[in-house]
Amino acid sequence: MGSSMLIGIDIGTSSTKTVVLSADGQVLAVASQETMVETPHPGWAEQAAEGWVRAVVATLRRALSDADIAPSAVAGLSFSGQMHGTVCVGADGRPLRPAIIWADQRSGEQVHDLVARLGKARLAAWTGNPVATGFMLASWLWLQEHEPETVQAMRWLLLPKDYVRYRLTGEIGTEPSDASSTSMFNPALRGWSVPLLEELGLARDVLPEVSGSTAVAGGLLPGIAGEVGLLAGTPVVFGGSDQAVQALGNGVVAPGIVSSTIG
Questions:
Q1: For residues 150, 38, 57 and 67, what is the CA-based torsion angle, rounded to 10 degrees?
Q2: Above 80 in pLDDT, residue 130?
Q3: Around 171, how many Cα atoms within 13 Å sit in the side-chain half-sphere?
């Protein structure tokens, strides 16, 4: 058969989904698992990052079993994922606290102060995007004010799918479509916005290097590979943010084509 099958994994807000595809795009199997959103205070929205990893392992195992294909038939796997979320990772590679996700509203004061300080025009020039509650920049500023011990212990700030991919490969990194959702990335320069980080006194070294969305991030670690029934070293591609990936999948690649997402 050769290595011709592909696996797509979506780290969604309400569920994690895995699909096994043939080389010509035929769906061979689909598996999903619900994921919970925690609201410890009104307006807060958090998820356990390790819960995403467990859901990926479970759905991968089920989808591969249903597809009934040999591990050697899988050419690689990749991700789409919910945007904007903030996973604080310590030096041991584990989350320091629950992830603050896109729906979180706690950072309203930080967003207001940031816009007042920098202005919408400067933010747009530096990042190409407005800033809103739930975005990584806003959540980071909230953490600095309210959880300085988390910030002090933090080695990496990762987006949801990037944390899961790290756990599958052991490699830290991100790609432009999701990095753009943080309000700290300059899409014109394809890199983190140095003027913004310097103006706010934020540490560049906790943000991962940015690679191409279609680049191979690393190979599947032996432990995870054994759990799900794949070969160690199976290529894992960086992937993209859910909205960018759905636009591409729906053919929204030229002026005049529109897709609508109602979450």
A1: -150
A2: yes
A3: 19
Helix ranges (DSSP H) in the chain: 49-67, 108-118, 120-127, 136-146, 148-153, 160-169, 176-179, 194-200, 222-228, 242-249
Radius of gyration of the chain (CA): 18
Q: Are strands 154-158 and 235-237 parallel, antiparallel or unpaired?
A: unpaired
Backbone φ and ψ for 71, nearest 5 degrees, come out as -55, -35
Closest by alpha carbon to 89, among 162, 180, 168?
162
Tell me whether residue 242 is one of the annotated catalytic residues. yes
Spatial distance between the Cα atoms of 179 and 187, rounded to a whole number of angstroms: 9
Per-residue confidence (pLDDT) for residue 2, from 0 to 100? 63
3-state SS string for 76-119: EEEEEECCCCEEEEECCCCECCCEECCCCCCCHHHHHHHHHHHC
Q: Is the pTM of this model over 0.85?
A: yes
CA distances in angstroms from 226 to 39, 134, 231, 233, listed in the order given: 34, 35, 7, 11
Supply 92's token pair. 């041991």
Cα 44–Cα 41–Cα 150 angle in degrees, nearest 5: 70
Helix (H) or strand (E) holding 7: strand 5-11
110's tokens = 């930080």
CA-closest candidate to residue 50, choices 14, 87, 85: 87
Distance separating alpha carbons of residues 248 and 211, to the nearest angstrom:
18
Determine the Cα–Cα distance for residues 241 and 161; give it in Å rounded to an integer: 8
> Which pLDDT value is given to residue 261?
83
Beta bridge partners of 5: 74
* CA separation for the pair 8, 17 (Å, rounded): 8
